[in-house]
Design a protein that fits this description.
The protein is α/β, with parallel strands linked by helices and 135 residues long. The chain folds into 2 domains: 62 residues, Signal recognition particle alu RNA binding heterodimer, srp9/1 (2-Layer Sandwich), CATH 3.30.720; 51 residues, 2,3-Dihydroxybiphenyl 1,2-Dioxygenase, domain 1 (Roll), CATH 3.10.180. Helix content is 20%, strand content 41%. It is built from 3 helices and 8 strands; from the N terminus they run E-H-E-H-E-E-E-H-E-E-E. The strands form 2 sheets. Strands 1-4-3-2 form a 4-stranded mixed sheet, covered by helices on one side. It has a 4-stranded mixed sheet with strand order 5-8-7-6, with helices on one face. A hairpin with a 3-residue loop joins strand 6 and strand 7. Helix 1 runs antiparallel to helix 3. It is globular and about 50 Å long.
């Protein structure tokens, strides 16, 4: 069973605000962790600010700001490995509007089928999010 998806960021407050404003997540945990992170992650001298976001009683997103974040290139949707988060939404067009207002952007086009309306957006850090409205 899915527990959460971790997103490492340099601007944890900006991403917290994005996910809370666009998707209605609430903060259920906020703390700086030091004690066990190095052992758990194999990152030397790890220290991270952690914010857990929840919606409908489930923690879905864990934002992490390590004392030293490593840089990475943008991940395209056809890159091998995990490339995006997928969320069910009530209204794709409303989410796209909120996304843009809050520093994100639409990736590609909105597609409508008999079952769903679907689109890809990205958050202010460039993380891809598939949004799906079931019809």
């Amino acid at each position: 069973m899915h527990r959460h998806t971790g997103i490492v960021t340099d601007n944890i407050i900006n991403l917290r605000n994005f996910y809370c404003s666009v998707f209605g997540f609430i903060v259920v945990y906020s703390k700086t962790e030091r004690e066990y992170l190095s052992d758990l992650t194999s990152v030397k001298s790890a220290s991270a600010q952690i914010i857990k976001l929840s919606k409908n009683g489930q923690t879905v997103i864990e934002l992490l700001k390590f004392a030293k974040n490593k840089r990475r290139k943008s991940v395209e949707l056809n890159t091998k490995g995990i490339t995006h988060l997928a969320l069910t939404v009530k209204n794709v067009n409303n989410v796209i509007g909120e996304c843009v207002i809050n520093g994100g952007k639409l990736v590609g086009k909105v597609i409508t089928t008999e079952q769903v309306i679907v689109a890809f957006i990205q958050d202010p850090d460039g993380n891809k999010i598939e949004i799906v409205q079931e019809l």
